[in-house]
Amino acid sequence: MFQIKKILRIFKIETKNLIKIRNIQCGKVTLSYDSSPPYYIKEWYNYCLRLLTEAARASEASFNIVLGEHQPRIKNGRPTYRIALQIEHTLVREGGRDSEGAEAGSIRIDDSTAETYLVRLVNLGALEAADIILDYSRANLINVKHSPAYVTLTKKHFYFVPLINDDASRAIADRTHQCITMFGNPDIGRRKKILEELAKVVPVKNINGIYRGVAKVYQSTKTIINIHQTEHHCNAEELRIVPAALNGAIVIAERSPLTEKIFTRHFAIWASIENIPKVTAEVVKNYPEFYQKMFSEKFMNRVRRLSIRNSLAAKKIINQLEKKSVDQRII
Predict the structure, then answer these.
(1) CATH 3.40.50.11660, the chain: domain bounds
(2) Residues 266, 166, 210, 137, CA torsion sign
(3) For the purposes of burial, counting CB atoms within 10 Å of the CB of 75, is it exposed (0-12), middle (13-18) or buried (19 or more)?
(4) Is CATH 3.40.50.11660 the right assignment for the domain spanning 177-295?
(5) What pLDDT shows up at residue 98?
(6) What torsion, rounded to 10 degrees, do the Cα atoms 245, 248, 250, 251 define?
(7) Residue 283 pLDDT more than 90?
(8) Which residues contact 305 (CB under 8 A, 6 or more apart)?
(9) pTM of full prediction above 0.85
(10) In what order do the strands lie in the sheet with 116-119?
(11) What is the per-residue pLDDT for 110?
(12) Among the listed ranges 45-59, 176-190, 301-315, which one has the minimum average pLDDT value?
């Protein structure tokens, strides 16, 4: 009886996995995708899927694309190429979590030292095996590009600005939360400390456990605080900062390496972690003025330009795979 239950359980899991793997025909290109990706990357995954689907429709070549790590259900004999999503922080200081074996990079920690950030690539084997790597962070792109150890990754490493909910409401009304954080573990380390310091100057609330409807939280929030996970993991979290700003929340973010080089630097107010409470109090006190300054017509123009840039990057990816498929047939 136990064996039968075990077999049925395995069958149920395998059937579920088969059901969620789907194909979409984009002109001559067949794209295999996961219709139920992990909750923590679902919106990002679907945004990438949308861009790639639109770009693939114009391809003159016939080939297959697999978006993610799943096994595709395609049997057409055409070349198949895999696109991997790189969603981790790569700018990590020595001693940071999961940094064992990470190569030294070329991005200096500050001007007063020769010490550089590591280039932390989780699941490196999958990234090396992929035909294309998609990243949410321009800082990651720069960090990898300037590392001699990963020259082979550079030509296939692309960046989409995470313009998730780019058509969302940014209305100033009905924003009931003065200031929020969205820490998964608010009672540890620097997260606990920043919450204590913020509470001294503004009403602050930590909201976590929300995996669906995050946009509604952003739309009811005036200011949201974004800090590095640890003192070792130093990326600007574009995957959080950009969607929050697109939904009209003023993001106050911890200053990060390469901030001046990321396209979305105007989507947040940057400050050292020590100054974040002071800056937050100033923003809350003068909220209407900061809101108007942040979400002016310049903001909308930036969003439009970045959206066009993403579409061009998607076309470049498809063109690169198209050329690869043609070269493969010639060989």
Answers:
(1) 177-295
(2) negative
(3) exposed
(4) yes
(5) 73
(6) -30
(7) yes
(8) none
(9) yes
(10) 91-92, 116-119, 103-108
(11) 81
(12) 176-190
